[in-house]
Amino acid sequence: MKTYRIRKPRIVVIGGGTGLPVILKGLRNESADITAIVTVADDGGSSGSLRQAINVSPPGDLRNVLVSLSEMPKLYEDLFQYRFKKEDEFLANHSVGNLIIAALSEMRGSTYEAIQLLGKIMHVDGHVYPASEESLTLHAVYEDGTTVCGESKIVKDRKPIDYVYVTNSCNQETKPKAARKVVRAIMEADMIVLGPGSLYTSILPNLMIEEIGQALLQTEAEVVYICNIMTQKGETEHFSDADHVSVLHKHLKQPFVDTVLVNTAQVPDNYMNKEKYDEYLVQVQHDFKGLRSQGCRVISADFLELRDGGVFHDGREVVEEIFRLVFGAKY
Questions:
Q1: Which is deepest, 53, 98, 142, 310, by most CB within 10 Å?
Q2: Dist. CA 302–CA 96, nearest whole Å
Q3: Would the pLDDT of 239 be above 50?
Q4: CATH of 1-39+175-331, one of 3.30.365.10, 3.40.50.10680, 3.40.250.10, 3.40.50.1360
């Protein structure tokens, strides 16, 4: 049931992947004024093949975010999310929503315009913006000095990452730019939420757009990072929560995260379905002293939800904490 407020707090959520929609659904139910800024560096699966075939921004993360904020009937949502079976030849593994976004992007000549139109059609409660209006390519430089190009390739070698950066996919000579209204949304927000999501491949690709990174350093909004529950193969192996924040600060060259939400509930032994969720390894280690030394307020609680053999953030618990923070800070 939705909560109604006289003054909706302006909350900007930045990221990608499967964790973002969980938080957005909870925020929608609490009647926040939501803006989702979504990565456009994905080059795997359906999104990757579509961006190669018709030069469209990767639609997958945008699709999931639209659905999480949509008021459309369940049947329409199920249709939008339907993924063709792997034996369906050239349609194999494509979702209907990805194809619709690709078609509208081609019709309008812009993924940004396509997402704004779909927002109206789907009765989206909030604003959804791609981080950039062009597809981006994610690059990683490993600690041994070697490099790799492409979000889907970064984790394969399982080497420690030194840093990542993004380039425009079609014209690497030009500097990536933030999509229209993105910087304004950050500067006018009451709170910025990063994650949950893959550190190097879902969150940092957005922050590596210079305008977005600078806006995060300049905004007066509280910046909240939702730390991942599990470490990820090829990205954050052996990481503590403090290590996650240290990487964020390193990439923007100064501390900017104000508050970190950390799950302290234990995942039961042998619970996870390792075949279905093969990218996750072990629970993130806690280093509260390390977090505080970086100037962060630490909020630790049971944010854990176990379902379908996987480990997720409990959207309701996380959103309750976000609202305690935003109303305590601004109202």
A1: 98
A2: 36
A3: yes
A4: 3.40.50.10680
